[in-house]
Amino acid sequence: MSPPSPLIEALQQAVGAAHVLTEGDLSAYEHDWRRRARGRALAVVRPASAEQVAAVVRACVAHGATIVPQGGNTGLAVGSVPDETGTQVLLSLRRMDKVRAVDAANLTITVEAGCILQNLQGAAEAAGYLFPLSLAAEGSCTIGGNLATNAGGTQVVRYGNARELCLGLEVVTAQGEVWSGLTGLRKDNTGYDLRDLYIGSEGTLGIITAATLKLYPRPAAKLTAWAAVPSMQAAVDLLGLAHARLGAGLTGFEVMGQFALSLVDKHYPQLRVPLFKESPWCVLLENSDHESEAHARALFEQLLETALESGCVTDAVVAENLTQAKGLWHIRESIPLAQAEEGLNIKHDISIPVSRIPAFVEETDALLAREIPGVRLVDFGHLGDGNLHYNVQAPEHGDAKAFLRDEEDRINTLVFDAVARHEGSISAEHGIGSLKAAKLPHYKSAVALGLMRRLKQALDPQGVMNPGRVLAAETTAIGSQPL
After folding, report:
1. Whose CB among 88, 141, 341, 431 lies 3.0–4.6 Å from 82's, allowing a Cys bridge?
2. How far apart are CA 86 and CA 150, in angstroms?
C-alpha cells in the first residue's frame, strides 16, 4: 500500500485516522438519495467538533482540494455528494449529533448540525416543548441539512420554514474560521444578518456546525381531518375557510391528487386510503389547539359543516384518536414511496401564489397531456404555503429510463416556464443543488444572480465550498473547479 498523500495525512491529523475513509464501500456517502448520481470521493472525513471541521477546511485550502458537506444525505437535488473526479473531500457531519442545551425560559434548543431531526423533536418533547419542523425524511435527515436547504415540511403554514425556526448559527467559513453566532436573541439589529445568509446556501458559503432553534409550547390537542374536494379551487376555498375558523390553530394543510393516492392504494393497500376513488382531490388538515380536545373538535366540526354546506367539501372524516391520525399522515407521506415503486419519475418542487395554483394546475396538466400523450401527473403537496410537488410519471407500460433520458429536460422547461408565468419559484424547499443549477439562470434575474455570485466570491474566493451547486459552473482559483 502506498503512503498517504500530504492532504490525507493532514486530514488524519485533524480528525484522527479512523475518521478519514479512503477505502471500502463508500456508497452511502457517494450515492444521492434518489440514486440520480454516483460520485467518487478522495476521502470521507468525519469530524467531531467545529474546531475539527475548521482544521479540515484549512487543510483542503492548503492542498487545493474542494469540500462537499453532507448531513443525512436525504436531499433531492443532488447537492451533497461528490462529483466523479475523485478529487473532492466529502465532509460528513454525522458524528456531530449532540443536543448542547435547552433554555426553557428562552424557548430555545441548541444542537449540533448532525443531529437527526427526529432526535431533535424527541429532545424538545422530553423537555415539554414542540420543535415543529416535520417532514417525511425526519428519521434520517439532519438539522444542518435542513437549514442548508431551508427545509419546509408539513407545518410551514403555521411555523414557517427552517429559516423562521432558527435564531443563531455556528459556521465554519471557507477560510477555516469558526463564526460563533449561537445567540438565542429574537432581536439583534447589529448589522448584516449572517445567519440568514448561510441558511439556504446549500453549503456553498460555509459549513453549518450547530444551531440555536425556537421551541414552542406543546398544544393541548392535535386533530386531523381528511376531506374530499371537487376541484383544486375548492381546496383553495377550504384553505381560506380553515384560516378564518382555526386561525393559528391550522398547522397543516396538504392537498393530494387522485392519481397520487391511487398509487398509494395500489402499492400499499394495507393503508386503506379514504374517499379518493370518487373525488379528484383530497385534503389533509391538522388543527392544533391550546385549550382542549373538545374545543379543537368543535372548531373542526364547525369548519367541516360550513365547508360541506358551501360545496367546497363533498365528504370528510375526522380521526378519532392518535393512531388514526398517524395513519392518515402515513398515507400522505407514502406518496413519494409509492411513486418510486411505480417506476422512475421526474420531480418538481415548486411554489406558486396560492390564489394562482388552480389555474397553474389546470393549464399545466393540459399542456403536458397534449405534449406527451399518456403522461401521468402525481400532484400533491403543501397547499397551505403554496408548495406543490408536481411530479411526472412515465406513460404506463412505457420505457421509464428512456422517458427520463429523452423527455426530462423538455418537461422541466415546460413546467418551469409555466411556473414563471404564474410568478412562482422552481424550488420551494428542496434547493437547487446540481440538478437545477443550469436552469436557475433562466428563471432568476441577472441582477439577483450577479449579487449571488459576488457574495460567493467574497465569502469563498477560492471556490472551496460545494462547487457546482446552486450557481452554474464557473472557473475558480482552485484547480479550475466549477463554482
Report:
1. 88
2. 29
